From TrEMBL:
UniProt keywords, alphabetically: Membrane, Sulfate transport, Transmembrane, Transmembrane helix, Transport
UniProt-listed SUPFAM superfamilies: MetI-like
InterPro entries found in the cross-reference section: CysW_permease, MetI-like, MetI-like_sf, Sulph_transpt2
Pfam families for the chain: BPD_transp_1
Protein name, UniProt field: Sulfate transport system permease protein
Length: 291
């Protein structure tokens, strides 16, 4: 066309091995960052874990087994498992219900509910334990009434369970809320139009769609419940053989200079952490493979 300005051809964009160096970092930058990241991981994660195992087995397998089978250690293990067995199912029920309400319904105060769910993430576990001491302790709000009815919460199993519930209840809900928001409500609405009841919709539509996220949240909740220290330390009273969980038992052994025994018990928590990591990775692969 007359009067038009000729345009110069645009060079093709190179991809793969032919990528223009001007748009990428130099190779030495990439390897430097990888090296620094690996160094940090080794220094902060791998080395401490290796030291725990080395110290636990430093005096041989006999001392290691004796530390794990000692009566106080067995009592701490049983209490830790009992608290996890109680708190994880309760937090699972709460997490599913909270995620269902927040993602499937519109109501005033939804933002406040989400904030309250996240509250244990922003409060120190020690402060969380202190809250329950001020509420249920002998000088707390309900302390006199509990004493009159011979109900013991603080320095007993109920206090440990309540503190662990408080610390761990966000995990399942926070795993499910983003997942269920992303899925939307179309499938549930379609089920309603077909005449399905609420329970049938949940078991046949919602639960299959959230099963991997739910399992992921349960695993994280269980790991935190068994490894919780701060809040449980405040409400347990450190009664040896009665209210000590595994983390508290590790602290007592270390303060008594029983280093091999303390590292042996700590290795149980390390095994739990590694098992949790493997389960998380497996669930992640399963979730991706089903998409």
């Amino acid at each position: 066309m007359a009067g038009s300005i000729p345009l110069s051809p645009v060079p093709p964009v190179k991809t793969g091995r032919g990528t223009n160096r001007a748009t990428t970092e130099a190779p030495w930058v990439k390897w430097l960052l990888i090296g620094l990241a690996s160094l940090v991981l080794i220094w902060l994660l791998i080395l401490p874990l290796a030291i725990v195992l080395m110290e636990a087995l430093k005096q041989g397998w006999g001392v290691y087994i004796a530390a794990l089978t000692e009566p106080d250690a067995m009592s701490a293990l049983k209490l830790t498992l009992l608290v996890a067995v109680i708190t994880v199912p309760l937090n699972t029920i709460f997490g599913v219900a909270a995620a269902w309400v927040i993602t499937k319904f519109q109501f005033k105060g939804k933002g406040l509910m989400i904030t309250l769910i996240d509250l244990p993430f922003s409060i120190s576990p020690v402060v969380g334990g202190l809250i329950f001491v001020l509420v249920f302790g002998s000088n707390g709000w309900f302390g006199p009434w509990l004493s009159e009815h011979d109900i013991k919460i603080i320095f007993a199993l109920p206090g440990i369970v309540i503190a662990t519930l408080f610390i761990t209840f966000p995990f399942v809900a926070r795993e499910l809320i983003p997942l269920m928001e992303d899925q939307g409500t179309r499938e549930e609405e379609a089920a309603v139009t077909l005449g399905a009841s609420g329970w049938r919709i949940f078991w046949s539509v919602t639960l299959p769609n959230i099963k991997w996220g739910l399992l992921y949240g349960i695993i994280l909740c269980n790991a935190r419940a068994m490894g919780e220290f701060g809040a449980v330390s405040v409400v347990s009273g450190h009664i040896r053989g009665e209210t000590n969980t595994l983390p508290l038992h590790v602290e007592i052994l270390y303060n008594e200079y029983q280093f091999s025994a303390s590292f042996a018990v700590a290795s149980l928590l390390l095994i739990l952490a590694l098992a949790t990591l493997l389960l998380k990775s497996w669930l992640g692969h399963k979730a991706v493979s089903e998409k």
